[in-house]
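Render this sequence as a predicted structure.
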Amino acid sequence: MSDGISDLNASQAAGDREICDRLMNEIDRGLPEAESKIWHRHPVWFLDGNPTVGYSKLKAGIRLMFWSGASFDEPGLTPGTGKFKDASVLYNSAEEIDMKDLKRWLAKARDIQWDYKNLVKRKGVLGRLK
C-alpha cells in the first residue's frame, strides 16, 4: 500500500474518507501483487505496469473505476463512453459498497485486461492482454 494513498484518503471529508479507506483496503487485499501509487492525482493500482483499478473524488461521490471493466460483463458497473474499455460505479456512502461484488470485480480485473500501458506505442489502439 502506498503511503501517498493513505495521506490522500486522510484529506477527504469523513464520509468520503470511509469510502476511500474501505476501497483501498479491499483493493490491497484483492490484488496484493499490484503496485499502488498516486497517478494523475488519484489512487491507482497497476498490474505489470498496466493501470487496473483506481478511485477518484467527483462532485457526485467517489468513483471506483476499472480500466478494463466494460469487459467484465457486470450489471453493477457502468461502461465509460468512447473507445476505451473502462467501467465504474459511484459511491456516496461506505455502506453502498457490496463487498461480494467488489471481490468479484477485483478477481476479474486480474484476469481481464486491456493493454493501456502500451496505448501510445500502439497509436491509440487497445489490445487485449488476458
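Summary. The CA atoms of residues 118 and 124 lie 9 Å apart. The chain has one domain: 3-111.
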